Amino acid sequence: MGWEALEQWGDDVVRGEPLTGGAGVNAVWRMRVNGHLAVARLGRRSDADLAWETSLLRHLHWEGMPVPVPIPTTDGRYFADGLVVMTYVEGRPPASEADWRRVAGTLRRLHRLTRGWPQRPGWRSSTDLLHAETGTRVDLGEMPAEGVVRCRAAWARLTDRTTCVVHGDPNPGNIRMTADRVTMIDWDESHVDVPDLDLALPHNAAGLDDDAYDIATQAKAAWEAAVCWDPSGTDQFAVKRLAEVRPA
Fold it and tell me: What are the residue boundaries of the Aminoglycoside phosphotransferase domain, all occurrences included (predicted)?
């Protein structure tokens, strides 16, 4: 149905300009809904996937964590025909070590609030991929065999850990800061995994010891290589990240 689905949010909806984001798989636009700034994201996620994401964001909002809040349609649904509309978040990206320490605190709060959360439909965690070949955007069969061995060795160091929701992509473009809050946006890569994947931050802002930080950075590099890999092997970001994963 596409953008025509916006009519399900009422008569006072104005589509503004496109925004960057969405990991290249979504169209993201600035909106006005009933006179208030909002963001609309149109993609190809399944209803089950969108139900998981919007339920997560509503849960975090209820718990007092700053997040983009899904805005319901006029009949009370939180998505329609692949379209999600959320509140717009003002702020700036992190720019200092102190900023990143605040980001680490926000991520740890996310992890505390979502222990035991069910897995996003169709996704696999990093440790699931020790045995599985595919999961959403990951297809290990498309990667070089020796690269898969290295990735699995990095993820094997994460076994037997408590899982929770991870944001999955805490880069500066997905963070909005003000003096009194840190908000993570773009939850398209969020899923259930070990928290280490979120905590390999600049400046080691999460305060991990040397061994824990090494485990986290290796696991994150392996994850990003696997998620971004394309069959031609020409995605330079993925190639670079895979090169950073050491042999076992």
Answer: 17-207
Domain 97-242 has CATH 3.40.50.620: no
Q: What architecture (CATH level 2) is domain 11-87?
A: 2-Layer Sandwich (3.30)
- Say how many Å lie between the first and final Cα of the chain, rounded: 48
Q: Report yes or no: 68 and 89 within 8 Å, Cβ to Cβ.
A: yes
What's residue 22's pLDDT?
Answer: 47
Q: What is the pLDDT of residues 223-241, one digit of tens each?
A: 999 999 998 878 899 999 9
φ and ψ at 132, to 5 degrees?
-85, 155
Q: Where in the chain is the domain with CATH 3.30.200.20?
A: 11-87
Tell me the pTM: 0.94
Inform me whether the pLDDT recorded for 195 exceeds 50: yes
CATH 3.90.1200.10 spans which residues of the chain?
Answer: 97-242
| C-alpha torsion 141→144→146→152, nearest 10 | -40
In single-letter form, the type of residue at position 191 comes to: H
Q: For the chain, give the percent of residues with pLDDT over 70.
A: 98
Phi, psi dihedral angles at 31 (to 5 degrees): -135, 170
Structure tokens at 55: 């339920």
Q: What integer pLDDT is reported at residue 232 of this predicted model? A: 83
